[in-house]
Amino acid sequence: MPFSVTQQLGKPPTFPELQALARQHDVQINGDELAGNFCHPNPEQPKVTGHYAFEPNGDLRGNFTGNFMGKLAGSFVLTTGNAEITITEKPFLLPESVLKSTLSVALKDFCARFSPDAIT
User: CA-to-CA distance for 87 and 97, rounded, in angstroms?
Assistant: First the structure.
């Protein structure tokens, strides 16, 4: 059953900010400021792959598929004021509570980089 994790977000990252963040985490982006694909750590043996698209207003949307104890899949939406990750498929052996907790911490850390205080 799908579930979502949300956090407050000052503003979505710009493409240059997204590129810088990707480099820090060994994520490869193949695309531009409109849309593209990403993978970690490399296209030949990716642990995570996905697609992203920037909307005209700067919102960022995408989806991803990973392999962590089985298939993990979902989508993300980053808008001014809100960041949301929706998990649509998770490994049977990975408890939902553990996944929610881990995602919540990671999303909170991500959003802190783009909070109003961090922006100014």
Answer: 12
The pTM of the full predicted model, rounded to 2 decimals, is: 0.89
Domain count, the chain: 1
Write down the mean pLDDT value for the chain: 91
What digits encode the pLDDT tens for the residues 72-90? Answer: 999 999 999 999 999 999 9
List the CATH number of the domain containing 9: 3.30.530
Structure tokens at 102: 């881990």
Domain coverage including residue 7: 3-119
**Exposure b/e, 58-84, CB count within 10 A at least 16 = b:** eebbbebebeeeeebbbbbbbbeeebb
